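Form 7-S
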Amino acid sequence: MEWKKLGVFTRFLIISLFLILPFYSSACVVMESPDTYRMMFFQARTGNSSPLQIFNYSPALYASYNPDPDGVDRVRNAKEWQAVTGNGVVLEDILAIQYETSPDSLQFAYSHNKLQAVFEDNSFIQYLLRPSSKLLLEYLLFSKQAEATETAWSEGFESWNSDANEMAVVKQKKLALLMIAKKRLSSVKDDFLKKRYAYQVCRLSYQLQRPTDVIATYERCFKKFNGNGLMNVWSSLFYAQSLNATKKKAKANYYYSLVFDNCDSKKLRAHQLFNSDEATFTAGLKLAKTAHEKAVMWVMRIINNPGPVLSSLKTISSLDPKSSYMTFLLAREINKLEDWICTPAFTAFSPAVSPQWNFSQAMAKNMKTDLEYLGSFMEFVKQQQQQARGELHQYLTLGLAHLCLINDNTKEGLDYLNAIGLSENSSIEIQKNIETAWVMAKTTDITDNVFKDQFVIYCHKLHRLAKSDNTINKTLYSLLLGVAGEYEKRFDFATAGLLTMKADQYKRRYDAAYAEDFSITADDNYQKIRYFDKCAGIGDVDNLIRLLSKTDKSDFEDYITEQPLGSVNLYRDLQGTLAFRQNDLKTAYSIFRKIDPAFWRTSYAYKDCLNEDPFVAKVLCKNRNFSYHFDKAKFVKRLLDLQDKTHKKTGVAENAILLGNAYFNCSYYGNSWMMVEYGWSRAEPEYHSPTDSLGYFNQFLAFKLPPVRVVPNPLKDDNYYNCKLAARYFHLAADDPKASNEQRAYALLMLHECNYLPWTITNYSWYDDKKPKYPAGKELREFYAHYADTKVYHDYKCPLLDAFIARK
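Output:
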């Protein structure tokens, strides 16, 4: 199986500005998640949205391993310790011990009386070594012991090799720690330590499945919720879980909402546990004491909802007009509309988060309702904008501009953009520049140097920002793909292709933060031609070669060519292949002859896939020889010579058989398929139809290419899976009155193969045991009836003899 490492390419510029092209492979593919192919344009943020980023409209981010990216709760914890120890203890020293020191190393130093020496430069440890701080040190050591039973410091923690015995040992350790914590909780007088031991009792009791003990401890020691005390908040999460375990789901929901609102590190967990069913949610709302608390519960209900939530947004706004969550929720709704309206309209994909399996059937109806929803949502955002001031007003105005562009209302969108002054919020400024670039691409001449120069300035600025903010890579991906679509409209496929490839580099950088990085390397030749293979014509590749060969490139040309690209020979080979697919042999020959024959013996997969004699039919070859030195120019030249001879009626049968063999070998079933395609897979029969010339996985993923241009490709469309051109020459040989019996027998046998092999694709299934029987054709019947005494007959084992006899 030949590898063609290939992701899904899309390009998009708001409705009429953007054109998204999906790409697919005719061999093995690197499949991408919906979050990969989905464009994410609107990323401006205002306020403290960092702890909410895990709730972005992005499947890749939800359930992130780092729900508190800024470490806010770590600092809160350290500051609570600092309030007890005094400002003489450096905050960073507390953080180092709490979060960067393993339980084993701390315990080892303590048990060997080496804390003083090992941590001589740590002001926190030095303070705890004072006789007056004995109880504080005692608690720190205890908390580290507890940490060792449930974190990565613990040997075998969450190991695939964990067994029941290991789990039993951990349980016994937790039981022992719980007894110690309860004993100290009952005797300690200091309120700081009492709260911390109470937290440890709540946590350990819940982990040991003792919810009633958690409830009793929490209600005795904390009495009521206090968002300013971190131990109170953390304990409240275990209290809520214990309430839920004892069927008090409404009250549990209320406490989940309190934790969510007051603790960054527990936001995700609180949301995961929150009960969103109508009855529990409604009952929980009645427990909320303020309008703000009710609004928070509504926020939790919708913050990860992939559907429209405008009615809930209105409820939140009425309950808490200044909700700190509103701007994030509005941005999330904008991201949904981008996905709903643009992704299915231009990619043939369903939205990234879609509840419908067969989305295509519902797409037309959904598009109408989504556009209507966009209008209603815009009205709500306008109301918010009219009441806002300062940065918030700028942010909402920017959101309205973006919504206008989604709806292809460029004029109104530009008016909103022009109304936004200079902002101190860098994300607003970045988004404003992106929106401006999109409008420029739609309303100005993108071939003009003024646009190109300004566009490169924007891109370089974003590129620098992306080094510290990975989401900017997604923005660059979207921006470059959008402009690539505009160049396609102008039939400049050289520029469009380079922009598309450059965009893919940014997408890969974005993806690398969440999954394996499939970056293009020097060996990934197909990555360097795949766009041009699917979209370009012969002249487009000429333009590409000229651009790559320029020594005095403009800034724009430098930018789009600063990426892994192929050699001139690689692009000439593609150019010759495009001509060959069109059966334009003269043009193909004129191109291939410019390439050193050593290229096909040393480069890419040619040396492994073009290494047999193309004039010997693979299907009938008993002793295959893989040492053949394939030269595409010589091959095409011989085809031309053979065609000329058959046209002149010279040795028709002999030459037609050689031509038939050659075209058969240039099909999916032959040894020279790489004259036509750049990838091959044995799995193709399951997903490909001989009548579908768009490519492997086309039916499986419902991809489509836009009708930018229609170029006939007879060698690909008619011959690659159907063998029609090969069959034409075998018919010519069989019908030649001067053909010998051996030649006619061979031609008939190959005609059978040209019929049978495409039939196997149409009727093949790996899963269906009831496979239909091949209906023997007239060529096979004639072969058996009249040529049983030929050498060809005896050499090739009488294919499908049983079928022939059964139907005789």
